[in-house]
Amino acid sequence: MKVWKCKKCGYVYNPEVGDHESGISKGTAFEDLPDTWVCPRCGAKKNMFVAMEI
Questions:
Q1: Residues of each annotated binding site for Fe cation
Q2: Residue 44 sits in a domain of what CATH number?
Q3: Where are the transmembrane segments (predicted)?
Q4: Do the beta carbons of residue 15 and residue 28 sit within 8 Å?
Q5: In the chain, what's the furthest Cα-to-Cα distance?
């Protein structure tokens, strides 16, 4: 399974969990996040995230 990790603060976006604080439902792929979405922990943009296999 693929998750996405913020290079700035280490926050991990897991599509199986989503980001409820930002209104992102579980099951939302990282690629489907709006371009305006930012890291809920540090505010980094999507281009600051790297894919990781877990």
A1: 6, 9, 39, 42
A2: 2.20.28.10
A3: none
A4: yes
A5: 26
Number of domains in the chain: 1
Would you say the C-alpha torsion 24, 37, 32, 19 has a positive or negative sign? negative
Residues annotated in a binding site = 6, 9, 39, 42
Instruction: Report pLDDT digits (tens) over 19-41.
Output: 999 999 999 999 999 999 999 99
Please, what is the average pLDDT of the chain? Answer: 97
Question: Which contacts (CB < 8 Å, 24+ apart) does range 21-30 have?
Answer: 30/2, 30/4
d(CA 29, CA 7): 18
CA–CA distance, 18 with 8 (Å, rounded to integer): 19
Name the residue range of residue 23's domain.
3-52
